Amino acid sequence: MRTSIGDPGVLRAVIGGGLYLTVLGLLGLGLGAVLRSSAGAIAGLFGLLFVPTILADILPRAWQNTIGPYLPMNAGDAIYSLHRAAGSLGTWSGFGIFCLYAAAALAIGFRSSPVATPSQPTPGDPMTISTTCKRCREPIIAENEDDLVAQVQAHARDHGGAHGKHIPTRNHILAHHRRQGPEKKV
What we know:
Layout: H1 10-35, H2 38-56, H3 61-67, H4 72-77, H5 91-112, E1 129-132, E2 139-142, H6 145-158, H7 160-163, H8 170-180
């Protein structure tokens, strides 16, 4: 059997194959967002595609004909199939149902994802540097060395009575910071 791209339905099936794989990827992305696990998303995707279809074969014939066309694999299959099976959904309606599965997974996944909110840097954060005041044990956290020096000097000025009149110099602060590590006393 020879088929060319100009035959009826072939171009739609070729483009439909790409559309199917695109929506399949989005369905997997949605499941990954829901499950928060790569391996879980892959297993869930294959489970969602194959298990309902296998379980539908166990059901009575009347139920198979009723729910079978709406299962994810059968609905998505309509876009790239050249010949429709009896009782299956139309090309675009089947693909639309498949897109709804992907949209639902994406909506649930992104709805359940925690929203990233800016937070205060914490000691030990790889994007920050920190030190601890050796007198009051208050952590001093900064994004770079210049900020650390300014904050240590401001801390010493603000607590002049408790810390004495000494304001450490930049070299003194950085020498102690580098020698003793990012979370050591200055």
